[in-house]
């Protein structure tokens, strides 16, 4: 089954074709992402109305480009998957409207995919995919969650952030130290040149039991350290390193706790912060020490993309699930409410 995937939940237009006849990474026939970062940079954050309008401009050309790269015509598509939520309502409606119309015109099924299920399943597109049950760490711009995955489609929330998401903390911390928009990747790159241990920040909420997170206090600690510093380039890099180490250690400690609680030795990591090199290295060390396994998507499939939507949609379409003809989106959507697959 060849599934066209469409992602428009926020500020990335993503399109992909996933073919279930070719498993794993071979199934990904083509994928393309257009990022609106430059569009929103002058406002220092995503402007919802501008995001919707830009999806309108970019989506159809990107679908044509992706089909051409896959060597397919639109008639070769057996189903359409689109992000139905969570996300910005206007942005979601652009993808949903195009997906539903295309499916209707082709007389093929369409399915609305949960954006975070897309992130969560992205590692399963890689070589030697893990099998449920496993524990997933979802670390993105809007979410930080530990999820017990009993089966594909059966998700139990084990813990989540009480305030900022990990990616949001990266972005806001970068901004307060004057790094360019969006900030997270820039802060991570700067941290590479910093000296570990010069600045030591708290590992929030690791001193008590539980699997929830809190990152907003860390941001304030960085603000004070930066304000009281000489504000040199060297200091900025050292603070960036101190911040990154604090976030990475906190995530790693909670992942180990979640694996212990779930009695499981496979961890899956997804979402934009999953692209962070130090997080990848730390969780790989932890898995090696524990005799377990950690699985990540390639960095390009950690941040928003159409491939994860095509893949998650394909699993559900293959199981016979699909939506009605109406265009519906769900801007707020609990992943635990999803139906099981198969
Ligand atoms: P959500 O998926 O929760 O709706 P989103 O789609 O905006 O949010 P993603 O696209 O998954 O989030 O990830 C973007 C986030 O990942 C941003 O906050 C960004 O700063 C962060 N990020 C990307 N690369 C890195 C990196 N190398 N290190 C740390 N953070 C990163
Ligand atoms: Mg984005
Ligand atoms: Fe995302």
From TrEMBL:
Keyword Iron listed: yes
An individual GO BP term: tRNA threonylcarbamoyladenosine modification
Residues engaged in binding Fe cation: 115, 119, 304
Residue ranges of domain Gcp-like in the record: 28-311
Keywords: Acyltransferase, Cytoplasm, Iron, Metal-binding, Transferase, tRNA processing
Signal peptide boundaries: none
Keyword set includes Acyltransferase: yes
GO molecular function (one): iron ion binding
GO CC annotation, single: cytoplasm
Cofactor binding note of this UniProt entry: Binds 1 Fe(2+) ion per subunit.
EC number per UniProt: 2.3.1.234
UniProt feature coiled coil, ranges: none
Co-factor(s): Fe(2+)
Pfam families associated with the record: TsaD (PF00814)
Catalytic activity: L-threonylcarbamoyladenylate + adenosine(37) in tRNA = N(6)-L-threonylcarbamoyladenosine(37) in tRNA + AMP + H(+)
Ligand binding (substrate): 138-142, 171, 184, 276
Location in the cell: Cytoplasm
NCBIfam families reported for this sequence: gcp_kae1, T6A_TsaD_YgjD
Family in the record: Belongs to the KAE1 / TsaD family.
Functional description taken from the UniProt entry: Required for the formation of a threonylcarbamoyl group on adenosine at position 37 (t(6)A37) in tRNAs that read codons beginning with adenine. Is involved in the transfer of the threonylcarbamoyl moiety of threonylcarbamoyl-AMP (TC-AMP) to the N6 group of A37, together with TsaE and TsaB. TsaD likely plays a direct catalytic role in this reaction.
Annotated protein name in UniProt: tRNA N6-adenosine threonylcarbamoyltransferase
Organism name: Luteimonas gilva
Gene that specifies this protein: tsaD
């Amino acid at each position: 089954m060849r599934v066209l995937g469409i992602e428009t939940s926020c500020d990335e237009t993503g399109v992909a074709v996933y073919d279930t006849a070719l498993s794993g990474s071979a199934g990904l026939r083509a994928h393309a992402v257009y990022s609106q970062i430059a569009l929103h940079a002058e406002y220092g954050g995503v402007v919802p109305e501008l995001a919707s309008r830009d999806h309108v401009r970019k989506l159809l050309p990107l679908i044509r480009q992706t089909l051409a790269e896959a060597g397919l015509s639109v008639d070769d598509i057996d189903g359409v998957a689109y992000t139905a939520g969570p996300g910005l309502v206007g942005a979601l409606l652009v993808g949903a409207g195009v997906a539903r119309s295309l499916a209707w015109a082709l007389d093929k099924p369409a399915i609305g995919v949960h954006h975070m299920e897309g992130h969560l399943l992205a590692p399963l597109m890689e070589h030697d995919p893990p099998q449920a049950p496993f524990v997933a760490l979802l670390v993105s711009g809007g979410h930080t969650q530990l999820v017990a995955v009993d089966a594909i489609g059966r998700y139990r929330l084990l813990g989540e952030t009480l305030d900022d998401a990990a990616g949001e903390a990266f972005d806001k911390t970068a901004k307060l130290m004057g790094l360019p928009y969006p900030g997270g990747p820039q802060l991570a790159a700067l941290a590479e040149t910093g000296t570990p241990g010069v600045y030591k920040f708290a590992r929030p909420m690791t001193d008590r039991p539980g699997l929830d997170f809190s990152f907003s206090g860390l941001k304030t600690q960085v603000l004070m350290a930066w304000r009281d510093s000489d504000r040199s380039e060297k200091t900025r890099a050292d603070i960036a390193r101190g911040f990154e180490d604090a976030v990475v250690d906190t995530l790693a400690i909670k992942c180990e706790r979640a694996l212990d609680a779930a009695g499981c030795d496979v961890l899956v990591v997804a979402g934009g912060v999953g692209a962070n090199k130090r997080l990848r290295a730390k969780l790989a060390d932890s898995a090696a020490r524990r005799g377990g396994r950690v699985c990540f998507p390639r960095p390009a499939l950690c941040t928003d993309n159409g491939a994860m939507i095509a893949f998650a949609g394909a699993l559900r379409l293959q199981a016979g699930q699909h939506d009605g003809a109406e265009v519906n989106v769900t801007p707020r959507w609990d992943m635990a409410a999803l139906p099981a697959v198969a």
